[in-house]
Amino acid sequence: MNAVCLLSGGLDSATSLACARRDGFQTYALSFDYGQRHRVELEAAARVATHLGAAEHKTIAIDLRAFGGSALTGDIDVPKGRATETMAGTIPVTYVPARNTVFLSIALAWAEVLGATDIFLGVNAVDYSGYPDCRPAYIEAFEQMANLATKAGVEGAMRLRIHTPLIHLSKAEIIQLGLSLGVDYSLTHSCYDPAGGRACGQCDSCQLRRAGFAEAGLVDPLEYAG
Ligand code: ZN
Q1: CATH number at residue 119
Q2: 147 lies in which domain range?
Q3: Is the pLDDT of residue 146 over 80?
Q4: How far is the CA of 15 from the centre of ligand 1 (A)?
């Protein structure tokens, strides 16, 4: 059985890929060079794909800087040092317009070519930083759409499933799960705004990651700038 696994190079997507392997899938890892300011994560994605034995790893270029609209793709500063309550309250400027819909659509196309009925996505609705395209209702709607959108779905040859093994887990639980599946988190990259390849320690993503390791009583193998 083949599965397409979206892989950003971060902690969540690495754990999601490990879950696909645990579930017996031959994994096809998919990353995007979308003009993100933290392009260094693509090197992490390549390392993680190799480490977790992906059958293939593709990086597709789509330049979302063409219209910007996000702190990750435009000239907006990445927020630093925000309190966790503030993160949960609103959709942050690091939201990339329709990103998961763009990524899942391409994953769906590759799945159809591979004859794969399964897509893995490392979204999380607990520490989800307010992103609308990480919610269970969104995932269910996409899955329904996918089965209407494809030749494979219409001919009834297969029913496509979107797996979100982390969706109800806290960051600490995700880390514990990943470690039990042999994920080496020193290979991953989470920071939205790295300087010289090093994690800033202060953006939402760094803070959620550090809090997750602390809550799990574990040491984050990454070095932080601050
Ligand atoms: Zn950071």
Answers
A1: 3.40.50.620
A2: 2-215
A3: yes
A4: 19
